[in-house]
## 1
Amino acid sequence: MRKWIGAASVALMAFAAVPAQAADKVVLMLNWYVYGEHAPFYYGKAKGIYAAEGIDLEIQEGRGSAATTQAVAAKTADFGYVDVPTMMRAAIKGAPVVATGVLLQTSPMSAMGFADKNIKKPEDIKGKTVAITPADSMTQIWPLFLKKTGLKESDFQTVAGDGQTKLNAVINGQADLLLGYVMDQSMKIKDATGKDVFPIKFADYGINMVSSGIIANADYVKANADLVRRFMSATTKAVEAAEKEPKAAAQSILDANPKGGKIDTLTQGFELTIPLYRTAETKSKRPFQVTDQNMTDSVNLMVEYGGLDAKAKENPKAFYTNDYLPKSGS
């Protein structure tokens, strides 16, 4: 009897000594300091969605989409969450990067100011002062917005500065509006002042253009196809879970980064992001399933207004792939 127990113990000890397969360490670099739009990544990590796919996720804040794209191109980050048109500009110049999923399929670009100023349509911009950041993505598309809405440069004044200067101009009353993202700058203004902001969205005036998505180094994708599929599967599930629990998703940001903002504006910012996930063509699809037409239209707009090299129009599909996304229901 003692021999049997001893043998069983040895067998159990041998079994226990076999290590579980280690999770793959993955670094995701964001486009900027954390704000509400980033909630799904933190929620997916907190809820174990990435771990369930065998991924040990590290989320790093970024310093702009261009800098994050450079980090991914150099393989100092495995994946990036960036403005896809910004990634296109780098890719056409030779950066080995590709979008493995486009999350924001409707543009968040807006002209926004305090709600109590009652600036709610393009006509209301006449006679006002608009704060811009020269050469950023919104300023490049701004002339198209003016063209679509019949406004002229002479209809309003502009003041220029960096991102923080632009915010301060509106907060301090030096400008009536600024060009910003509906879920980002509007929440920063509200955090600083407690006052509501009203955005005039470019997308409401026929500017159909993608925005943020996941990118990876093209060589990394080829060498790690299974990992890329697992990462995109987890990220898709994380977005779907966060959509159902916006406040809990926003709270996961603060749980990971207590100085990451205020729960009310993080939640509101994320809730403003959710409608940007889909277009009329993708409303019944899972997140990230961008259409070829949407990407082609975005490339064409970027060539005409955003400084993208005209050769980009020859093959819009070179910038993105849906091949690593989970199938419906999986």
Note: Residues 1-19 have pLDDT under 50 and may be disordered.
## 2
Amino acid sequence: MTNIPVTTWSLEQTDPSDLLPADAPDGDVRIVRAEVPSPEFSRFLYASVGGDIQWVDRLGWTYARWREHLERPGVETWVAHDRGTPAGYVELGPHDDGVVEIEYFGLIPAFRGRRIGGHLLSYGTARAWDLAERWPGLPQTKRVWLHTCSRDGEHAMANYQRRGFRLFDTEVKEEAEVATPGPWPGAYPA
């Protein structure tokens, strides 16, 4: 197995006023919270969005592991729909002391390049800032952070920075080169 260098950038916002929202795209794009924890739906989103950019860390999760993750207080999945079809998602995960991580964010390949991503990231980040309003017992959000890497989409870093996220850490390490799994085997050419 071949190793390749992968750069991971961590970015943050430390105040709600840091958010620089994108304009909503033209057309019928709606963002809706998936309020019922559904391992099947979350795995579909994960595999469909990350299949061409080597998201593989959750592919081996069992149904029980997905359910356990999704049922944690404060975990939210917000889904962008283009004319009723799921186009992408943002997953929020609370940590201690008012820290919320944007654990996953992205669009299904067919919906990229249509200005949906900036809008979805803006909306998801705003929901990270007001997470405690929907989850009694969670502390008020003091910081929203995320990470992206050199395996992610070519416009990811620029989108995060345009939304007001600031770089706070960079790490480079060797990782195993993995096959691009696609949303199902053989969905994308090698």
Note: Residues 3-176 form a domain with the Aminopeptidase fold (CATH 3.40.630.30).
